[in-house]
């Protein structure tokens, strides 16, 4: 009989330790989920919504979350726990694969189909192991986009223009990809990519005749680099009241457009 109070005390102590451990795991998971979403192009409102839903599922009252383009702050007031995590500069504008994976995993957690430990483990694997599409596949996609927009915007179906739009866009995309991923020089990489397109058009304009049209080829070739998604997200951020992040995304989109445009313009006067 004298051992019962000690057993109850030990049980309560272990329970409290388990609860405290779960709270810290939840905090780390909220920060990591937000980091993955933001680093791969998600909107701030979506990130805040995901973290809030995680808190509701874990019965965290009055959870506070503040998200910027380069940092996330999460607070559990009742638990006296607040943490901030910086978001590294993005080297890709969008990785929908990771965003979808995080959203699916979050739905499983909020539906109580997986534990917080399982959620944290799978979230770490998403962050570390999900492969991006190969360079070859991305280049092929850029070539298809270029050909499609040549036909759609100019209604020109001359084989020479379609062929040059595809090959020029594919080469330029490979240059931008290597500069962005190996040297982390995204905007300079876009400038070099567009400069290479303009240089190819300069050569072709000297050796090719009608029906070749450099303007038509350029229109299609630059389409994979147009920051349409970035501009759309920027406008949506501003309309949602996230003025700081909205302005940041607009500047990013404008720098992208300026880098591409400058590379094209530099040599366009010669053909």
Q: Please mark out the parts with pLDDT under 50 across 5 or more consecutive residues, or reply none.
A: 1-18
One letter per element, helices H and strands E, the order comes to: HHEEEHHHHHHHH
What does the average pLDDT come to?
A: 86
Percent helix, as a range, is over 70%
Shape: elongated
> What structural class results from the helix and strand content?
mainly alpha
Query: Which strand-content bin applies to the residues?
Result: 5-15%
The rounded Rg comes to: 25 Å
Strand order of the largest sheet: 1-2-3
N→C terminal distance = 97 Å
Number of helical regions: 10
General description of the model:
The protein has a three-stranded antiparallel β-sheet with strand order 1-2-3, covered by helices on one side. The N and C termini lie far apart (97 Å). With 271 residues, the chain is mainly alpha-helical. Mean pLDDT is 86; it is low at 1-18. It folds into two domains: 6-129, no CATH class; 135-269, no CATH class. 70% of the residues lie in helices and 6% in strands.
